[in-house]
Design a protein that fits this description.
Strand order of the largest sheet: 1-2
Largest sheet: 2 strands, parallel
Number of helices: 6
Oligomer: single chain
Shape: elongated
Helix content: 25-40%
C-alpha cells in the first residue's frame, strides 16, 4: 500500500480494500495517504458500518462465523446468504 500511496497520482484517487474490519485499521489506511477505503466483509456484516465508524472510535466488526439470522437482519437475502455460506468460516454451519 505504501508504494501506491507515494506515487504521483495527479487527480486519480487511491482506494484500498481487503479485510478492513476495525476503525483503527481504517484510520491507519487513511493516514498512509489513501483517499478512500472500500468495505467488503465489514459492510456485509454491518450494513451501517460507516455510521458505526463515525460514532464509535473503537468499533470492531463482529467475528465470523455468523448466523444466517444475523445476515438476514443486516439485509441480506436468502440467495446471497446461501452464497456467503460457501465462503469458508463466514457463515455458521447448519445444525440439524
Amino acid at each position: 500500500m505504501d508504494v501506491f500511496s507515494q506515487l504521483e497520482r495527479g487527480n486519480t484517487k487511491l482506494t484500498v480494500a481487503g479485510k478492513i474490519m476495525t476503525t483503527q485499521h481504517v484510520q491507519a489506511v487513511l493516514d498512509a495517504g489513501v483517499d478512500f477505503v472500500a468495505l467488503g466483509r465489514a459492510g456485509i456484516l454491518h450494513h451501517d458500518w460507516p455510521r458505526k465508524y463515525a460514532s464509535q472510535e473503537s468499533f470492531e466488526s463482529i467475528n465470523t462465523p455468523v448466523s444466517r439470522a444475523h445476515l438476514a437482519a443486516e439485509g441480506l437475502g436468502p440467495r446471497f446468504i446461501e452464497y456467503m455460506s460457501t465462503w469458508a468460516g463466514f457463515v455458521e454451519e447448519r445444525t440439524n
